[in-house]
């Protein structure tokens, strides 16, 4: 049982934000979009950079600006967004506040780069205000990205893997998972507002209720065994009784408790150990 619950610590906002960042960095489309933005800014030279800089310095400047906005902004925005969601705030408000936080986090990097490249006067209030507004625009882009990423992770399969998925039927819940973890389900366990989903290829935390997660399991044969746990029938290695408690030993190691409410279903399926 401890093996299951020790993984719940991985579900804190920072770890979840790092997982999302890893997902973005693992997607080739991310590099295409970031590279495209850098090229557009370098060639167009907005904010006077075409007048003040030659091509190569301008390319370096905008590369650093975009990389800072993408890295710092997305990581901060995602972490703040998860924190606010755990606090129970509505999703649109979470996105708005996460975008604002992302803009604030990016501001120091933008100021430092402007100081290095342009010897900017950081005591000029008007200049600082303009940079702050620019960073809010970056924050707005981050908020939009978070909304799109969240929606896609909840509803859309990866188009690059649609042909591979066509050969096997997936539960709706599995389509929420990163592509590399979309494999047969083993078990689900609750962690705060999240559900830890264990598959043959790994584990992932999803922001939804266990009840909703179970409703999205429409292909895998399994059963709820506790208010906080669900297990696939094929993942049950054995069922035991210890100190009056019924426990399910799963094929990948974790031991899950069975509450009395769900014992009749185990009995009906012939999964309970024979009593002596």
UniProtKB/TrEMBL annotation:
It holds the Pfam family LytTR. One of its GO terms (molecular function) is DNA binding. Keywords: Membrane, Transmembrane, Transmembrane helix. The keyword Transmembrane helix applies. It comes from the Bacteria. The keyword Nucleus does not apply. The chain crosses the membrane at residues 29-47, 59-81, 93-117, 129-149. InterPro entries: LytTR_DNA-bd_dom. PROSITE patterns: HTH_LYTTR. Residues 187-272 form the HTH LytTR-type domain. This is LytTR family transcriptional regulator. It comes from Roseibium limicola.
């Amino acid at each position: 049982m401890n093996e299951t619950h020790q993984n719940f610590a991985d579900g804190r906002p920072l770890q979840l934000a790092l997982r999302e960042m890893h997902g973005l960095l693992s997607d080739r489309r991310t590099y295409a979009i970031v590279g495209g933005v850098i090229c557009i800014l370098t060639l167009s030279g907005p904010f006077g950079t075409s007048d003040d800089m030659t091509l190569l310095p301008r390319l370096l400047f905008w590369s650093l600006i975009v990389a800072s906005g993408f890295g710092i902004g997305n990581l901060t925005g995602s972490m703040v967004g998860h924190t606010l969601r755990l606090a129970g705030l509505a999703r649109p408000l979470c996105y708005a506040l996460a975008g604002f936080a992302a803009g604030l986090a990016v501001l120091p990097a933008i100021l430092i780069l402007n100081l290095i490249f342009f010897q900017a006067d950081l005591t000029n209030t008007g200049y600082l205000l303009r940079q702050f507004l620019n960073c809010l625009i970056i924050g707005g882009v981050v908020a939009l990205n978070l909304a799109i990423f969240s929606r896609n992770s909840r509803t859309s399969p990866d188009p690059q893997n649609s042909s591979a998925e066509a050969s096997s039927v997936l539960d709706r819940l599995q389509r929420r998972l990163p592509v590399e973890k979309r494999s047969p389900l083993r078990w689900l366990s609750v962690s705060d507002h999240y559900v830890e989903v264990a598959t043959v290829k790994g584990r992932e935390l999803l922001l939804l209720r266990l009840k909703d997660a179970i409703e999205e399991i429409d292909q895998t044969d399994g059963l709820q065994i506790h208010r906080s746990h669900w297990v696939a029938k094929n993942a049950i290695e054995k069922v035991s009784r210890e100190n009056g408690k019924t426990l399910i030993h799963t094929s990948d190691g974790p031991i899950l408790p069975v509450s009395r409410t769900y014992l009749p279903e185990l009995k009906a399926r012939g999964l309970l150990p024979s009593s002596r």
